[in-house]
Write a structure and sequence with these properties.
205 residues; alpha+beta; five-stranded antiparallel β-sheet; 5 helices; 38% helix; globular
């Protein structure tokens, strides 16, 4: 029997409701989590000297994915799209991944070097380490392995998330055909009308 790692995924909020309901987005995260589980297990069980980034110290990881559509003014909690726990005891690593993701979002870069070169950017209660990755606007942070191993797994998850959303968006386009707005009812968000509600009526030319 082939060993597998338990994967649990959850969505905090869904910015892609125009094409995916929450269950479908959870399914996507679960699928991506299973890919990372295969990588984690392979690297954890590899013989000495065979794993490209060194043997992983534990068969568990926590991942936090930020919403690439989130408003820049949103606080860190609101900016979380979802999380993935791979392996037993992975839940304990999620706060660390969250701290890395929040620092990346605030600083605009991986927090991995800050404790060494820019400790003035960190405050009380900050997490000392990276790594997190930003791929095509998607920030993902991972925790439980070495910094290089965390960075690798985070970057792969971010890239595959972008690819997965892109593939499903293409399916949506072929399903609905020509459309101006990315919504199930073809209507824009009310806020876009509110942004220009002040503009006077045309009246007579």
């Amino acid at each position: 029997m082939t060993e597998t790692l338990r994967v649990q995924a959850a969505v905090h909020h869904n910015p892609y409701a125009y094409m995916l309901d929450e269950a479908e987005l959870v399914d996507l995260l679960s699928e991506l989590g299973r890919r990372r589980a295969e990588s984690i297990l392979r690297n954890h069980t590899a013989a000495e000297g065979e794993a490209p980034r060194g043997r992983y110290p534990r068969p568990a990881m926590g991942f936090v994915i930020l919403d690439p559509t989130a408003d820049a003014r949103a606080d860190d909690t609101e900016a979380v799209l979802g999380a993935i726990a791979v392996g037993e005891q992975a839940r304990q690593f999620l706060p660390r991944a969250a701290a890395k993701a929040a620092a990346h979002r605030r600083l605009g870069r991986n927090n991995g070097s800050s404790v060494h070169t820019d400790p003035h950017l960190l405050g009380t209660g900050a997490f000392r380490y990276g790594h997190s990755a930003e791929v095509r606007g998607v920030i993902v942070a991972a925790s439980s392995q070495s910094t290089d191993q965390d960075l690798y797994e985070a970057s792969r998850l971010a890239a595959e998330f972008a690819e997965g959303i892109g593939a499903r968006h293409q399916e949506f386009e072929w399903k609905v055909g020509e459309t101006d707005w990315l919504s199930r009812d073809g209507l824009p968000l009310a806020r876009y009308g509110e942004m220009v509600a002040w503009f006077p009526d045309g009246g007579k030319a």
